[in-house]
Amino acid sequence: MQISWLIASYSQEAKSLSQAIAVMKLSRQWGSPSGEHWAKTNLRALCKTTTIPPALRLRIGRLYMNEWVHSALSELVSHPLKWMKARDVEWLGFPLYVYVSRVREKHDETRRKLAMCAPRISEDKGDDCTNHTQCIR
After folding, report:
1. Best CA proximity match to 21, nearest among 49, 48, 42, 52
2. What are the b/e assignments for 106-125, b being 16+ CB within 10 Å?
């Protein structure tokens, strides 16, 4: 199946994110490798030029672009939950939202525990230390 059959006004670039996602969905449904390739190429290009919210990137990643999952999940976990909007929860779905919030909570708990454990400072001079009073400041 050719990509020009899927898109009436076929061009080299997707006009929008929704167009690239629609082509990917149809290409997967109808088994069109050329359509999948076109959609993946355009999704990668759109990701570089447009800001795609991490929740939407995670949804797209879980469905079509596996390489997006790690970065999107990392970004979701590193930001406060209060930054999430209703559309983000809709894109994630409630079970994944609960998972992200649990991971975020565990991340905060671990950070707090690590903050309470100060690293030991050795009294020995290091190999490259010429003036110990300066290197411990």
Report:
1. 42
2. eeeeeeeeeeeeeeeeeeee
CB atoms within 10 A of CB 132: 11
CA angle 60, 64, 70 (to 5 degrees): 65
The pLDDT mean for the chain works out to 82
- Name the nearest CA neighbour of 65 among 22, 11, 24: 24
> Cβ distance 59 to 95 under 8 Å?
no
> CA–CA separation, 2 vs 7, rounded Å?
9
pTM of the model: 0.69
**Consecutive H or E run containing 128:** none
**Is pLDDT at 129 greater than 70 in this prediction?**
no
Predicted local confidence at residue 32, as pLDDT: 83
R_g of the chain, CA atoms, integer Å: 23
Contact of 44 with 37, CB cutoff 8 Å: no
* Integer Cα distance of 68 and 61 in angstroms: 5
